[in-house]
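Notes from the 1:1 (GR / supervisor)

We went over the backlog. Supervisor wanted to see one worked example end to end before approving the batch request, so GR pasted a single chain during the call. The sequence is below; no edits were made to it. Supervisor asked that the structure be written out right there so they could see what the output format looks like.
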Amino acid sequence: MNIVGHYINGKVSEAAERTQDVFNPATGEVARQVAIAAKETVEEAIAVAQAAFPAWRRTPPAKRARIIFRFKHLLEENADKICAMIGEEHGKISHDAMGELIRGIENVEYACGGANLLKGEHSRNVGPDIDSWSEMQPLGVVAGITPFNFPAMVPLWMFPLAIVCGNTFVLKPSERDPSVSLFLAQLMQEAGLPDGVLNVVQGDKVAVDTLLTDPRVQAVSFVGSTPIAEYVYTTASAHGKRCQALGGAKNHAIIMPDADMDNAVAALTGAAFGSSGERCMALSVAVCVGDEAADALVGKMTESMQNLKVGAYTDSSNDFGPVITEAHMNKVNGYIASAAEQGATIVVDGRNPKVEGYDNGFFVGGTLIDNVRPGMTCYEEEIFGPVLLVVRAESMDEAMQMINDHEYGNGTCIFTRDGEAARYFSDNILVGMVGINTPLPVPVAYHSFGGWKRSLFGCLGTYGPDGVRFYTNRKTITQRWPSSGVREGAQFSFPSN
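Structure output shown during the call:
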């Protein structure tokens, strides 16, 4: 059976202490196997990256950026191949996979401006004959640990920007859909990246722990669940590393009584069920202000959901595909069952959908649950599936308090025609990414992505300006060339201009 290997020093290696099955979630069958790296394999990748760093950091930023430009073109030329890889191993429908890739390419485009992003600042005559300037210098070897749900986009958030900033990179992708990352590394080589600058190690906790504790790794970027994000952050920080760890979410949408209900329903349908809800920015809770708004939303959502199509990635007419594993399918179904047991109303039940020709696939259909209350398991925890919860609130303040009280603070939005309400919401909600009549407020590549509270560990978000700050050290240099022949005595007071 085909084995997905590592990419170390410009070569593909199948070195493995053991292997793990990679499933096609639409069929439930094993598609291939992935090599699981031993500690020694990860250490080899780190050593290779460390050896490549001195020459790469001396490479002019414009030359680095030209390689990223060529990489961007190769991504576009190979887009269909990449999307097929995403579909086969993740289950994402082809149009959704293309959307993921395009958002990833936008981050590559931002990295193409590396020469401009690294200019630093300069001030002349900050004191008598004294000039001062700052430089953005690379850290060294940095690592990325990425999740299964965006096998192309999230790695593209990380390594192009880190590399254009002059760092070398070790990527540990999810072992559930490993092929895309390996292919991206090969495209970087084709674009002209020197061997050793980008390395990919497939693996599990052994690989993660090695990256978190090896002193040669200067920084770690992570995206995944909150418990693992907290573990990554605390472990990396305890070993003296810079770390940004993005965790889970429970994204709420407030539906005001004056909302354009048809547009809200359309937005919620895509944002709740797209990618089978396996997005950290998925809208999973609709908080309706007033029973009238709630009844209208539930009625229109129920009607809209009759047309949802769940199926395999190969049929682009499908709206969304399977969830990633059988275990996760059972977990999502368990959350639906718990909601009913705890007093909520299952309006549309997506458990055990019939997908012709794919009887063994890991499918969950779109699910709508009304009368959910804070404290219920389905409300408190991240489901990560195609499930929309409806919570009823008596006022906007009560709705906002629910959001502010939740442990997650990743994304949120409000649907309203009232500008005053929208402004009050955006000013006072304790969430990092906010939408106004926009269901998925994912920042574009030249802004930065990051939530609040237990959705982000670390003080910097990912990509955009925060990404540049994360992957560089600012060095400030103050220089003086006194006039010849001038002799000055010692000054014991603190210097000022």
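Supervisor's comment: The mean pLDDT is 96.
Batch request approved.
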